[in-house]
Write a structure and sequence with these properties.
InterPro entries: N_methyl_site. This protein is an alpha+beta fold. It contains three helices and six strands; from the N terminus they run ααβαβββββ. It is rod-shaped and about 105 Å long. The model has no long low-confidence stretch (mean pLDDT about 80).
Length: about 140
Amino acid sequence: MNRRQSGLTLVELLIALTLLALLVVSVTGTLVLAFRMNRASGIQIRDTSRVLAVAEQVRGQWRDARRYDAQCLQGVTAQNLEGLEVKVEALGWDLAVKESGGLVLGCPGADEKVDAEFRPLKRVTLVVPGEPQASLVLEVARGTE
């Protein structure tokens, strides 16, 4: 029986299946990693967008000196700030922190003058905790309007 038979032997078939399995495992691992990175990037972009939106509200509304003194934001709800850590520090002329607090939502007495000591600069820190973390430190000068 020296005839040459066509087809695959069992050993050749097992080797081919092993190579195919290794290829599938490596491709699957790479895809899983890519999907994780994509998800993390999406979360980070969403959180960064939220932080920038609040920072833009602060910067725009605090041009009004009364809102600046009251540390308040009009039109921003607690839902907008949900999951954000917000810290406001009032700085003196020497840039040392003189007082610390948070934001006031809504400006019920924005038309009234606030009897507060003049603070030329306020540092607003916005942080989205967790992984990945998004944060922004914004220094806002007192408006003159």
